[in-house]
User: Fold this.
Amino acid sequence: MAWLIFLGLVSTVILQEVVIGIAILQDSRENPIFPRWIAYLTFLTASLTIPGGLIVFFKTGPFAWNGLISWWILLAAFCVWMVTFTTALIRAIKRQSAASATALAREVATT
Assistant:
């Protein structure tokens, strides 16, 4: 029963996902850090997380803590988002590192 409070407070996760999605969409650089489709996936994940808040009201059925809608769909959506976002983040870090190395090499070559 103690997990219900932990699992039922999905509003912080939803807020985090919405803010991340907005930040990605507001990146107006020529080469944005994340592709725009990551923002749309983030919004989809946030919308699929909403039913998770219902677990405090149901003990059995699809909206219970172990139900199809409140747990398994939320878990699947979050796992897909986490793997996708982590992969995109690692790629962005590698791009930034390569760009920094190239800029440093140009600076050293000109001096």
Notes: The radius of gyration is 19 Å. The chain has a mean pLDDT of 87. The chain has one domain: 2-110. The longest helix spans residues 68-110.
